[in-house]
Each structure stands twice: as structure tokens, then as C-alpha cells.
Amino acid sequence: MGGGEEELRSYIIKGGEEGRARLSVLARVLAPTTERLFDRFEPLKGRLAIDAGCGGGDVSFEIAERVGPHGRVVAIDLDETKLVSARQEAERRGASHVEFVKGSVIEPWPAASASFVYVRFVLTHLTEPEALLARALEAMQSGGTIVVEDIDFAGHFCDPHNDAFFRFTELYVAAAKRRGADAFIGRRLARMLDTAGFADVGSSLVQPYGRTDDVKEVTLMTLAAISDAVVASELATIKEMAELKAELHAFTARPDTTVSLPRIFQAWGRKP
Q1: DSSP 217-266
Q2: 8-22, 123-137, 237-251 — which is least confidently predicted?
Q3: What's the average model confidence in pLDDT over 157-167?
Q4: E-assigned strands of the chain?
Q5: Is pLDDT above 60 for 42?
Q6: Is residue 229 part of a domain?
Q7: C-alpha closest to that of 126 among 177, 179, 181
Q8: Which domain holds residue 41?
Q9: Structural domains of the chain, count
Q10: Which residue among 29, 105, 115, 166 is least enclosed by CB atoms within 10 Å?
Q11: SS3 108
């Protein structure tokens, strides 16, 4: 099985236009914490950066602003629908220094000697996430920085308690495990960077939560996006998923309810 086929097999979240819309909402929620994360590192003006598993390019454009017009961003993803939208957005912005490339993140990358590599919510979906880190190391110049963000589904919470919310998290974890993915990979990121050969590894943790429309919308959109994988894995029926969606929608529609996203671990390191 080729790298691209392997990635798609283990990916439980629906892609295409629906996936692009979900990622856009998620990017809005995470923008403040991701920007603060990038601020930790030296300026990227004029540098080459790679966004591996870029989705619709939301973070690619943030990186593009940081490298400036004399730098370059190579953004890689397998989902052509998302890439088409990203290319259209790049044209609208006049961001000619951002290149969106269809490709596997576990096969050789179309760029080398990068100063900065970013990977968000990709390792969790891979059956062999170490393969991506090996490709990153190959594509980086000595002294370059890698930054990884990924989920850890332990620690979800809501207020007040809601059975539908925790059934959603249970199904997500089970569907990921069934396909060889890891919904708890976040806690392992720092150790994985160490093992892959990166130096000066550091890490932090954030967990968005709230009563706001965007945070709640991410939860609802994620449930919808995993429904096909859950049913295909025989973890729940179509009828059960419809009932779960209705229950969770009713809960999140209440103004007095709070929900969390997963814990998000952030880890970084340097190529020696």
C-alpha cells in the first residue's frame, strides 16, 4: 500500500468541502494559541517553511506572513478539494510565495533545506507517525525548527455533564483505534521528537473550551465528520448516530453549557 493510500485508510475525519469548513472553524478557535506558539521562535523572514498536512491552508497563510514575500511556503496535503480552495485563496491574497502541493507526508517531500516545518493534527491519523518525522528531518537544514501540534482526547469536559458529549469522545477514540490511529498521541510528541533525532525539544499544552459558537461548532462538525467511519467500523448504527447528533446539538444550543476541545500538545525541536 502506498503512503497516500495508507494515510487515507487511517483517517477517520471526512475530508472534501465538509472537512475544509470544519478546519476553517477550528483554525479560528486555535489562531491565538498557534500565533503565540510561533512567536516563541526566531523570525522567519526570507526563509523556506513547510506546512505538512496543510488542509485548507489556514495556518499556511499565517506562516506565509511570517516568511514574507521573499520567503517561501510549501504546503503539502492529499486532499485535492482542500488544496483547490487553498490555491484560490492564495490567488485572492496575492500570496504567490505559497505553493500548495498534493502529496503524501510520509513519502519524500517536494522541498529541502527548510528552516521551519509545521505539522498540526496529522500524526494522530497516521499508523506510522514516525515516518513523517523522518521525512521532516530529511527536508530540514541544520538548525531548522520543527513545530508539532496534536490532540490528546483524554481530559475532555463539559458543564453540565452530558452523556451525548462523552459518547461522542468515546466513539472518536474507538474509531481511531480501529483504523490504527492514535487519539492520545499528544502526550507522546516530545518523546517522539527526541527519538526522531531532534535536539532542544520542548513542549506545552493548551485546551480551548467555552460557550462560544465556534468552540461548540467544532464539536458538532467533528461528530458529523466521523459518522461514516463510526458506522463503517460498526461502532454505532446510522440511527444511533442521528440520535447522538440531535442530543449533542440540543445540548450545545443551550447558552448555559460549556464544552471543551481535546487537549492540544505543542512540541518543538531543532535539527542538529
Answers
A1: HHHHHHHHHHHHHHHHTTSS-HHHHHHHHHHHHHHHHSTT-EEE--EEEE
A2: 8-22
A3: 98
A4: 48-52, 72-77, 98-102, 114-120, 140-152, 158-159, 199-206, 209-210, 258-260, 263-270
A5: yes
A6: no
A7: 181
A8: 3-152+181-208+261-270
A9: 1
A10: 166
A11: coil
- Grid cell locating 14: 471526512
Is 160 exposed, middle or buried, given 0-12, 13-18 or 19+ CB atoms closer than 10 A? exposed
Residue range 203-219: average pLDDT?
96
- Domain-located, residue 93: yes
Secondary element (H or E) of residue 25: helix 16-38
- Classify each residue of 78-94 as buried b or exposed e, where b means 16 or more C-beta atoms within 10 Å of its C-beta: bbeebbebbbebbeeee
160 prior amide bond cis, ω within 30: yes
Q: Is residue 227 part of a domain?
A: no
As a whole number of angstroms, the distance between CA 169 and CA 35 comes to: 27
Contacts of 170 (CB under 8 A, 6+ apart): none
- Going 241 to 242 to 243 to 249, the CA torsion angle's sign is positive
CB 119 within 8 A of CB 132: yes
Angle CA 165–123–178, to nearest 5: 55
pLDDT at 4 over 70: no
What is the strand order of the sheet 258-260 is part of? 158-159, 258-260, 209-210
* 245 in Cβ contact with 224 (< 8 Å): yes
Which of these ranges, 10-14, 24-28, 29-33, 251-255, has the smallest mean pLDDT? 10-14
* The C-alpha cell that represents 102 in the structure block: 498534493
Say if CB 76 and CB 50 are below 8 A apart.
yes
Q: Is 11 part of any domain?
A: yes
Total length of the chain: 272
